Structures are given as structure tokens and as C-alpha cells.
Amino acid sequence: MVWPLVFVNKLIANFNWYLLPKKKSCLFQRATGTTRVFHDHIKNYQWVQCSTCKNWLHFECAGVEGDWTSKDFFCGCNIVPDVDNILESVKAEEILKDEEIKDLERNLQSGHFLSNRMYLWKHRGLDAALRKYYSEYFTLFSDMKREQIIQRLERLLSVPGTVAEKQLFITEVILPEVVIQWLQRTSNMCRYQAESVLLENTYKEKSAPELSTSDRESTEEVNVLLRDSLAAADWCRKTQFDGGFKVPAVLSMDEKEQQEALQELHNCKDDPSEESPAELFTFVFDKQKDYDKFCTELIDKNNFKVFSRFEEK
Fold it and tell me: How far is CA 289 from CA 242, 274, 293, 303, in A?
């Protein structure tokens, strides 16, 4: 059965929010404790109904444009993607093409693509609770693959602001939007369904202190080095520094390359230096103050096994 489009105002839209599941997948969220609706420059909403589940979605949530009065729409509601298998097989460099990622970032910045994460980034302070909620649901990938994707995004995109702001923008906004678009293309989902999959299946961010000493001692030393380096990279991206920093190159390598680097490090008896295999595992800071902060918090207080140095610029 083909359902006609309807044009409704915000009053009718509020009724739809009541009927839909209480998820944060809809683009038109209401700011916590207010009547303000995200993307409030849109005054009239267009709706389309899924011919399978019969739920109504905004055009923007459905990802449709143009005239849908004579077309069936399928939101992807009965798709149960084999997320684990998909994630295991895909490589970081296969998550969209470089130009697609650049186009996505430009469209998010311009507002051509709507995104609640982008809206909250541009309206900082509007809804701290919702921004925190989205920041905890940002990727489906394992810590190692996520780090590889983040480093790829940092190489591709030129984002204005400080180093810390760029890294936070990539983690909170670009990374989840890349995952959503990738899910739409690989699993034939609409945006709403892809966002729902992300919110339901995500790897939640773990702060550095959660890696206890007992946990680290229960694994092999080489695995501890990689694991602590990943946790330290997460900590760095959430921490305000005076200067820039670089995370270890080993975190962007594939598993085979990592094992080879670990073997070289194990065989090396020299002190860490720029010629040493340890350099691949080293955090490098532009400012000694930032280096001292890193060492105090992670190495001294939390006994992390990581390499670090600074090179004043």
C-alpha cells in the first residue's frame, strides 16, 4: 500500500515523538527541559511511512528527497545485520572513500546534512546531558580499529581550532556520522535505523583509569603495551593540552604490522630513541608541561606501561 505524504507543524510532530520508541535516533530532538527543537530553522516537516512496519519518519530521518507520493518506502526495520561479522571483515581504510569522508564533513558543516551531534557542537551549552549521551555512543568498532579510523580522519580533514578541539570534533561528530553513513550503504538502512544500530550496539568509551593494575597483570606484557597505549590515546583526546601531541604510530597499523613491531621492540636492548623500535609506541608532546601532565596522571598514578617524550617547538 502506498501512503501519501503529509505536511505537519511542530504540534503534530510532538504527537509523533510520543508514539515512536523513546530513542535518540530522531533528528528532531527536543532540548532537555525546554520546548526548543533541534534544527528549528525547519518549520514544516514532511513525513513518509514505511510500508513494512507502518511507522512514520521525517524525510530527513528517512533519508529521502523529492516526491514520494507514489513510491513505497522501506526503512530497514526488518534488517538484522550481522554486525560482528561485518565489523570483523572491514578494514579502517574501507570505511567510506577519502572524498566521501571529506564531502560528509563539508555537508555537516554547511548544514546540508542534518546531525544532532553537529547541532550540539555548534550550540555548545544547549544540552550538556544529550551531548554526553551521544558522546558515549560513537562507534561500533573495537578500540584498535577505532583508533585506526580516528587517525585516518585526522590525516584527511583540516578542522579549524586547537589540536584538542579538532580531536574532540572528530571523535564526537565525524566518527559516528561516518559509521552511520557506512551502515546505510552496507546494510540498506535509512538514517534512523543506522543511528539506532549505533546506539544499541556501540562500544562505549572507556576512560583510562578503568584499566586496573590487576586487569593488566592478567594479560601478556606485549598486549598490555598496546592496551595501555589505546587507553592513553583516549585520555589524551579528552584532555586539554597547551600544545599538540602525536599518538603512537603502532595504533594505526594492522595486526600483522603490530606483531612485527612488538617483536622488534622485544629484541631491542637499547634505550628508547628516535632510531629505536620504541618510537613506534611513543607519545610525543610539543610542550614539556603536557608531557609532565601525561606522565603524572597515567604513568605515576595509574602505572600505565607506555612510552612518551616531548620535543619543544
Answer: 8, 21, 6, 19
% of the chain at pLDDT higher than 70: 80
225 exposed, middle or buried (CB, 10 Å; 0-12, 13-18, 19+)?
A: buried
Question: CA-to-CA distance for 77 and 55, rounded, in angstroms?
Answer: 9
Contact 120, 133 (CB under 8 A): no
Name the 3-class secondary structure at 117. helix
d(CA 146, CA 85): 16
Residue 134 in contact with residue 24, Cβ under 8 Å? yes
* 131-188 pLDDT tens trace: 888 887 767 777 778 888 988 998 999 888 877 788 889 989 999 999 999 988 888 8
Where does residue 63 fall: left (phi above 0), alpha (psi -120 to 50 degrees), or beta otherwise?
A: left
CA distance 159 to 143: 23
Question: Tens of pLDDT along 78-88?
Answer: 776 666 677 76
Q: Which residue has the cell 544532532?
A: 116
16 within 8 A of 56, measured Cβ to Cβ? yes
